[in-house]
Amino acid sequence: MSKYKYPVCRGCWQLGNNCKTCERCIVHNPGFAGLTKGKKMEQKPSVGRIVHYMAHGSKDGTYPSTARAAIIVELTDHEATVKVMVCNPTGIHFNTATYGTDGSPATWCYPPRV
Asked: How many domains does the chain have?
């Protein structure tokens, strides 16, 4: 029996072939570990909040990773991980994202105050 609640991929962070969205990848993400050692989010995530989501971009580099508007649609067991509805110029999609301010793909953060 797996210790994970949902199915997980067999990828590895060190090899770079992980999915970055399953429960195992999120827990073993080096950025996630840093967050749990005392770094705090400036606000508590809640359903309906508008956030920035860092899109993956294309593998060949034609389309760079870029920030997209997203709405938190579901909270998970991990405070730093949420499910978001991402708004793209070509439509919307749903994804799981981990909190991060370093601009890594598949991360979310609060928009800067203007």
From this structure: 1
13 conformational bin, left if phi > 0, alpha if psi -120 to 50, beta if neither: alpha
pLDDT in tens, 44-64: 889 999 999 998 888 888 888
Three-class secondary structure assignment of 63-82: CCCCEEEEEEEEECCCCCEE
Confirm whether 56 is domain-assigned. Answer: yes
pTM over 0.85: no
Nearest to 35 by CA among 99, 108, 107: 99
Residue type, 98: T
What CATH number does the domain containing 69 carry? 2.30.30
User: Could you tell me if 63 and 84 are in contact, meaning their C-beta atoms sit under 8 angstroms apart?
Assistant: no
